[in-house]
């Protein structure tokens, strides 16, 4: 017990447990009046508590779905068809390799209901936009550091860019780019770029300026060039800042991709599933897509974290 | 020291005034000084006397506002471009993402030494400061004294004849400091470099130097230049001899004459 609690696993699990309890309680309270109406219509009275809760937590369009309903919905729209293939192929012998190979591809390519298919679309736009955004952020930071005119003029505009609601920018950008013949993935990715370059600029301006005066003086005594000062001092010194920025950047790149998808419902993506879910009042689907998006964001942030640990360890700062 | 040796550093009427919001600060005023080749010159005085500033002027890290200074007969800027000196700061200033060997390689990389030559110099300088075997350690894995030795190795690596040291052992405890002082003297004897050494410790200045420059604040100026009569071979217990105490006394007198004690309290 002590060992479990000493890390982060134990505390996180406890928080999760508390969340679940609160969630079930909230689901009970919020869906109770509708359940009462349903019973009235059916003329049922004196329903036992177990049945009452069972009915309450399995409504088809609840105000607030119970956690297990969301999990079941996610499973039904992701792995269920694939697992189904395992059992259907040959009950006696499960050949996972051929099965997953063929079936997963079909999952992605054919079934537009699958969350995996939509998550793939969103992920592609997110990663492309994040890559653009990181490069753009780095370029801006390098310019701000090295060119005094940029240093004085650029930052207020960069900050101003983030005060514009992304929901207003997204359709204009997509329509505008459409008019000049840029369609498909790139406009969506650019919305992600628009959001994700910001933390990278702010973080890297700070990171590239993080070397202290003594470290800079040292380079000066060697008559180092600006390029050498950058590659040998500023850049390595800024690595912790870069990864902190990228963690924020990748998460908001995903938000950008979701918002961008709302502008073109034909192209698919988790954003589109959110939109159709809300049009049709499918609360369970809505929550399930949210869970998918949150999981995707978590995976992306953890991925950046892993890259960070590898890089910092190679720089002697791993622990 | 009858024979005239070429001056490595020569300052004439050197002055440096910082303009601050509280009015001008005279960090250096009318400093006339020659440092000859092969000398070990210490600069001593209370804080604010301009000893570090003078070192930074030699290194072209500060620009004088009056007078003239030459380093190896050139302006400090030219001397810096010719990599005439190695500078050791108050803190080791090692780059934490580089191993000790890669830290020493830093100036060599900047100056474009070949890989093989880099490796040879790293090996030699590490041996000089007794850090052989610590090549692949990161700075945080070393004690403060070892880190400062590594930073000295880094300053030695590219064969500058002049070593500028700004209170390099100021942050270390006295036992480590004694040890490093005697190592530094050995190093100086082996390499016949010229060393300019800033300190605020009288015993350290007397123990190390062939010439002690006593400085005084407000304005920062030289109040006395004392040539040491101690032999070049100096065991640590030389510090208990009457000759040593005599020189230390003169230094203290010089500091008193510059009102250093009143100002410092």
Shape of chain B: globular
Strand order across the largest sheet of chain B: 5-6-7-3-8-9
- Let me know the largest β-sheet of chain A: none
Strand content of chain B: 25-35%
Task: Kindly state the number of beta strands of chain B.
Answer: 9
Radius of gyration of chain B: 18 Å
Low-confidence stretches of chain B: none
Summed up, what is this model?
Chain A is 79% helix and 0% strand. Chain A is built from 15 helices and no strands.
Structural features, described:
The complex is a heterodimer of chains A (319) and B (265). Chain A is mainly α and 319 residues long. Chain A contains 15 helices and no strands. The radius of gyration of chain B is 18 Å and the shape is globular.
Characteristics of this structure?
heterodimer, A: mainly alpha, elongated, B: 265 residues, alpha/beta, six-stranded mixed beta sheet, 37% helix, globular
Topology:
The complex is a heterodimer of chains A (319) and B (265).
Chain A: H1 2-6, H2 9-42, H3 49-56, H4 67-76, H5 80-89, H6 96-109, H7 115-146, H8 148-161, H9 166-179, H10 185-208, H11 213-221, H12 226-237, H13 239-261, H14 270-279, H15 283-314
Chain B: E1 7-20, E2 23-36, E3 40-44, H1 51-58, E4 66-71, H2 76-81, E5 85-88, H3 100-110, H4 115-128, H5 144-156, E6 162-166, H6 174-191, E7 194-199, H7 202-208, E8 211-216, E9 221-227, H8 242-257, H9 260-264
Parallel strand pairs in B: 3-7, 3-8, 5-6, 6-7
Antiparallel strand pairs in B: 1-2, 1-4, 8-9
Helix pairs in contact in B: 3-4, 3-5, 4-5, 7-8
